[in-house]
Write a structure and sequence with these properties.
The chain has two helices and no strands. It is an all-alpha fold.
């Protein structure tokens, strides 16, 4: 019968408060991590868009440069026969 009088609940108020505090800290950390992940995803999206635009600009520049070089080559080839005709 002494055991019945000495019965104590598994969770007393202090333990329950510590547990709730631990859960609250865990929830705060989880929320902060999710917020950080969201910001990283946004930054990654912006960086991907910026890199895509930069690559398109480089391709456009290279294509324009190739066009200019091919025009120059054609004009040199065309110019030579004209020069020869004039000399003759």
């Amino acid at each position: 019968m002494d055991n019945e009088n000495n019965w104590k609940p598994l969770w007393d108020d202090e333990d329950m408060q510590k547990f709730e505090d631990t859960i609250a800290i865990y929830n705060d950390l989880t929320r902060a991590n999710m917020n950080l992940i969201s910001k990283i995803q946004e930054q990654l999206k912006r960086n991907t868009q910026l890199i895509s635009v930069m690559i398109l600009c480089i391709i456009a520049f290279d294509l324009n440069l190739l066009r200019m070089l091919s025009d120059t080559t054609n004009s040199i080839i065309e110019f030579e026969p004209r020069k020869e005709r004039r000399r003759q």
